[in-house]
Amino acid sequence: MSGHLLTVTELTVTRPGAKRPELDRLSLAVDAGETLVILGEAGCGKEALMRVLAGAAERDEIVDGTLQFGDASPERAVKFPKPAIRMSYLPGPFEQPLNRHVSALSQLTRIVARKLDAPRASAQEELGLALGRLSGAPKLIDLDKPPAELSPEMQAWGLFAAAYAQNPELLLADHALAGLAPGHARALTRALLAEQARLGFAILYAAMNAETPVWLKGRLIVMRHGKVVEEGPAERLATSQAHSYTQTLFKAQPAPLSDKPQPRASTRGQPVIQAYRIEMAKPSPRRARDDLTFELRRGASLALIGDEGSGRHTLARILLGLDRAPSGRVVFDAVDIGVLANNMMARLRRRVAFVAGADDMLDPRMTIWDTVAEPLRTHLDLPRHVVASYRDVALKRVGLASLPGNRVVASLSAFDKRRLQVARAIVSAPVLAVIDEPLRGLDAFAQAVMRDLLKNFRTQEGPAFLVITSDITVALALAEDAMIMKDSRVIERGPLADILRAPKTVYTASLIEASAPVKNSTLSPAAPGS
Amino acid sequence: MSVVSAHEAPAPAITLGGVIRAVGFIGLGAIGVTVGLSEVLARAPADTIDFGPPLIAPSIHFPLGTDVLGRDMLSETLHALAVTVTNAGLAAIVVVVAGGLAGFIAARLPYRIGFVLRGIAGILGAIPALLLAILFIGLASRGLAPLAAGLAVAPLGFTRAFDRARALGQSRHAEFARATGISPGALLRRDLTYEFRDSFLSIAARALAAVTIVLSTVSFLGYGATPPHRDLGLMIAAARDVYFDAWWTAAVPAAALALFILCARLAAGLDEGERA
User: Fold this and answer.
1) I need a labelling partner for A211 at 20 to 30 A (CA). Which of A134, A321, B23, B28 fits?
2) Residue B8 and residue A436: Cα distance in Å, rounded?
């Protein structure tokens, strides 16, 4: 008997034809009630470990090594292990673990019922109880919608509750907080710590950013190329790292928010967007008139900051003429878009570029070359060799020049797709770039590279930036001015540095607190149901 | 130390579906070569009566036997296969153009016009393709049987392409493209390029199987090919009276027909689609 809850010995996962194993003779042990975080960039091996433990190894993966669950005897690792302990798997909502068109509540209930071997009604009751214990969680009935109609944060609450309802001994959290708005991520972490204290389960968490292990504390294993490069208590490794890779990983985190941020000036040109008294919601007797007037000039950057559903996207769609505001006027590049026909509006939008944190923004059938060259070929009458040279320069700037140009988008990683969006934006020579949660779902390295690429794009091409984010650190990296949005209203606006220095509303203060990275992060478990 | 992980290209996966398609295309290629060499391989010109004694069973002298008029079954089957494959090829082109291509374009027309066309295609698709083909042949002429068969099978291809094009048009990447000023025409070009470049052969193979069944049945019923340009359906029909005494007279053309349809279905990846 090992005395551990889980013992992994010499676990190796390989794929035929791959240059190196995904997981290279990994050995680790997890004790009851312990928190073990595995940290590394995408493809470091943590995903393969999670797949094997969750019984979801891919068809072409070859698994070798030994697994021991609790007091059961060690067994040779197989693709579909049968754990002798109660284990629940907790994926992140951006992995789309639920069928997008069937009620999330129904799916979560079915999962809990199957795991507890209980009738659906009892399982739903358990799920409701678990959800009720989580501070800040939505109501059970709110989850009775298809995931396509729920925000990722709502789905995350449901997934977390379903995991707790299974009363696990070991919780396999597979990037469960990745990409979530910082405020929700922290609330979910607090709830996780509270439930761990109550139920006493162990957590094995796969993370790609250094923030999570610091929040969760416990033990940290840093992995690279399928091997462990450093191990130790998370709190110690957060401040002193021995291995150069771990140092780079922690350095890639955004800089801590300064207590006294200084306003930054930027060169500003002609107005790109001028909004006059626009309203996002129809006026009603119950709601006070709340219109918005502002302008965004070329070279300037404005961040729309708020949680999912705060009205950021509604405002952006109005500004781009994709939707019409109930009242008010938007002038885009000196043209009143309210009077333009659809085809003229489409022409005007040629000068807009998007970089968004969703991987389905690019046509998965297109090749790398076609994706970048399309705006040039469609909007301009340029000779092929000129198009090719612009395309190659853009791909070189984002670091994708080494990939074969005929590779299709569907075969690219999330990070490559994100960089490809930047390359496409570069060749468009836009006057306005809409940057929508650009770092969502990326590991720390990829986030650092994306931040630099976007800054470089802004400096060299000089478009106006409209940054949509819930993360103040992202806004701080890419914008000087900000509007804080809540319930389809702008509740605070001005230079971002001023807002950070002296937030005027509780909501703004909570957003700033939620986005404060590693240095300031000390989370305590949430009081149940508070 | 590189801070960005290298993103390796995934090794091309060999799938069962891919193998099935490859087998189908190899089979179609072999049939194409046989058809191309049919004049050389056949020992007698088409419809040569009294080439040998009537109703001789397969033997060394007549590998596939002879029919009731003493025609060499091997030569006749090769000639008929050439006629069937040629007509089916023409009809498949009609299906690809009037079905797939038209469906894609119709989906991008103004909403109401597109849905009226989709409704008409849906109604036509609900009628058995064979009956539609007979109707079209009656309205036109026997010589236009390939066109009639193609138009009869096209409605299902049309609805399939229409629905696919609608789904593509509503996808996130299409919305993203429109938001950056990519015109509807450019989006249509993009969809046609990728859908037809990547799956043109599959669409054509699916259509080929369907129209071959329709054309052969039409000929079997006497509304299609006429001598001396007999196709496989007409050969099977000609064997009706002697089939129970001389099985090879119908079994040989039927086997050739089955092989051709099977290869087309395999090349389409056993995909249910435009079915006769």
Assistant:
1) A134
2) 27
| pLDDT tens digits, A131-169 | 999 888 889 899 999 998 888 889 999 999 999 999 999
Q: B264: which 2 tokens? A: 């087309």
- What would the mean pLDDT of A327-341 be, rounded to a whole number? 87
Beta carbons of A88 and A115 less than 8 angstroms apart: yes
Give A184→chain B minimum CA distance, Å. Answer: 25
Q: With beta carbons less than 8 A apart as the criterion, state whether B54 and B62 touch.
A: no
Cβ of B183 within 8 Å of Cβ of A351? The answer is: no
CATH entry, B17-40+66-267, from 3.80.30, 1.20.120, 1.10.760, 1.10.3720: 1.10.3720
Mark yes or no for CB contact A353/B7 under 8 Å: no
Q: How far is CA A190 from CA A26, A197, A390, A524, in A?
A: 30, 11, 48, 6
Smallest CA–CA distance, residue B181 to chain A, in Å, is 4
Question: Do A245 and B179 make contact, defined as CB atoms within 8 angstroms?
Answer: no
Residue A333 pLDDT > 90: no
Dist CA A177 CA B52 (whole Å): 82
A354/B176 CB distance under 8 A: yes
Question: What residue ranges define each of the domains in chain A, with the CATH number in brackets?
Answer: 6-250 (3.40.50.300), 271-358+430-514 (3.40.50.300)
* Strand blocks (E) in A70-147: 75-76, 87-91
State phi, psi for A102 to the nearest 5 degrees.
-115, 145
The pTM of this model reads: 0.78
Q: H/E element holding A9?
A: strand A6-14
Q: How many CB pairs under 8 A join A and B?
A: 91
Interface predicted TM-score of the whole assembly (ipTM), two decimals: 0.75
Whether A227 contacts chain B with CB within 8 A: no
